Amino acid sequence: MRRIRLEISYDGTNYHGWQSQPDVSTIQDSLEALLCGMTGERIKVTGSGRTDAGVHAIKQVASFGTESAFGAGVFLRALNGLLPVDIRVLKADEVELNFHPIRDVVSKRYRYLIDDNLPSFPMLRNYSWSCGVRLNLEAMACAGKFLLGEQDFASFQTAGSPKKTTVRTILDVLIRRLEATALYPSLVCIEVEATGFLYNMMRSIVGTLVMLAKSNEPELMKKIIDARKRSAAGQTAPPQGLYLLDVKYKK
Amino acid sequence: MRRIRLEISYDGTNYHGWQSQPDVSTIQDSLEALLCGMTGERIKVTGSGRTDAGVHAIKQVASFGTESAFGAGVFLRALNGLLPVDIRVLKADEVELNFHPIRDVVSKRYRYLIDDNLPSFPMLRNYSWSCGVRLNLEAMACAGKFLLGEQDFASFQTAGSPKKTTVRTILDVLIRRLEATALYPSLVCIEVEATGFLYNMMRSIVGTLVMLAKSNEPELMKKIIDARKRSAAGQTAPPQGLYLLDVKYKK
Asked: CA-based, 20 to 30 A from B219: which of A12, A216, B108, B173?
């Protein structure tokens, strides 16, 4: 048995998320179908975590075990030759058998893009949230500071997906306006890095940051965290603005 | 009768181009359906020119005549409220009755984006051409210089769309590599401004520039122009990399 680790980038627009599901298209199913065809084995691909329908990945990490003799480079070329162009394999490496893409995660970093231009930019409709109002980034950055550190983030967990604990550690919050370029208008970019994310945590953090920026009450973030209930926080921001940006592992 | 001029931006991915056609979705039809509903009139929207299926517009110009008393601002707000988010009206103005969006054009500028990264960037699959090989921009820029000026561009006209003359004047050719940003990888950006474009002229120019960059024979561009036949030039680059960038009018 050998273990292959993949780094994958995908456009989630046309998929029902990462995780295998019956009767719909998912990223995991797309990979497994090709790997089973290549090797003749029943291969299961494990990702670092699921992403929801419409959510993108700049870098997702996954791995699978195989009895085949194909080198990692063969998997890389074959997958990129056979996969649809909205899924690309960036890297393939043979790793130690005990590598586990979920258990070994040290931190994950998500990015969220908001198009706060009026009118919005049509080419970004599947890649950002058109929030309909110009955002005050000072207020957002001020609210974002309250998120740092080890805290109970129960207020940002969507119901129906209980975890043993809702305590996580947010290591970094970066909120900035990306200036307009030759290609794209000015956009708001929010990045959060944490030891782990509860279900919908990034999207409900973004919805809450936008709510507090609109009302210009950034200091309410502390009360919202302390409330430890989902109803205290803002809406869940839509999936198409969300990108899994990086997954970090112990050396 | 009054005349309203619109500036429009659209994502062409889900449309069969600008121009009205039976049984399929087009930009012109989308606008006309809403304007007819608003005014109760049979309104015809005339664009500065057609764009093909999958082609985008950063700025398309169009106009229509109406007997209604609605101000230009009312049309702007109503259209943006009712149109799907892949079509946005950037500007609406009342103009003189004799304004004509085709006849009055002084020049048009197109942009073409090429993703020459390996692997390609999945989020740009509908917004660029993944040409599969790293491009030599020096060769492209050298070939591009031969395009400038008043010339017979018959080599870049797709058959089946005869125009009275195939002579046009190319005013500017700008070929550059856009460096990677926080959001996007490095891309090749080609912009051409001309007094007018033959059918598929921009896309066949791009296909020819890529062909000459691959073979590193930029000086062949002159022979290709002089041949005055389509078969001398390169392939027609795919539609999804093309953007109508600007339409300039006499004052």
From this structure: B108
Do A59 and A246 meet the contact criterion of CB atoms below 8 Å apart? yes
Q: Over chain B (251 residues), what is each successive 10-residue block's mean pLDDT? A: 97 97 95 97 96 97 97 97 97 97 97 97 97 95 98 91 87 96 94 96 98 96 96 96 97 77
Does the structure's ipTM exceed the value 0.85? yes
DSSP tag of A127: T
Q: Where are the domains of chain A?
A: 2-95, 106-249
- Residues of A classed as catalytic: 52
Q: Which residues on A lie below 8 Å from B88 (Cβ)?
A: 119-122
Does any CB of chain A come closer than 8 Å to the CB of residue B33?
A: no
Q: Would you say A38 and A11 are in contact if contact means Cβ atoms under 8 Å apart?
A: no
Give φ, ψ of A209 to 5 degrees: -60, -40
- Residues from chain A that touch B127, judged by Cβ atoms under 8 A, are 123
How far apart are the C-alpha atoms of B173 and B147, rounded to whole Å?
A: 8
Is domain A106-249 given the CATH code 3.40.50.300 in the classification?
Answer: no
pLDDT at B158: 87
Judged by CB atoms closer than 8 Å, whether chains meet at A125 and B9 is answered as no
Helix%, strand%, coil% for chain B, nearest 5: 30, 30, 40
Average pLDDT of span A186-198: 97
What is the pLDDT at residue B159?
Answer: 75
pLDDT at A91 over 90: yes
Give A-chain residues touching B130 at CB under 8 angstroms. Answer: 85
Between CA B147 and CA A155 the distance in angstroms is 61
CA distance B192 to B170: 7
Classified as helix, coil or strand, A73 is helix
The answer to whether the Cβ–Cβ distance between B85 and A125 falls below 8 Å is yes
Q: Report CB contact under 8 Å: A90, B56.
A: no
A187's tokens: 């956009």
Q: Determine whether domain B2-95 maps to CATH 3.30.70.580.
A: yes
- Position B161 scores a pLDDT of 66
User: pLDDT at position B164, please?
Assistant: 85
Instruction: Say yes or no for a CB contact (<8 Å) between A113 and B183.
Output: yes
Fold agreement (B2-95, B105-249): yes
Neighbours of A149 (CB within 10 A): 10
Global pTM reads 0.94
For A106-132, what is each residue's pLDDT tens digit? 999 999 999 999 999 999 999 999 999
The answer as to CATH 3.40.50.10300 being correct for domain B105-249 is no
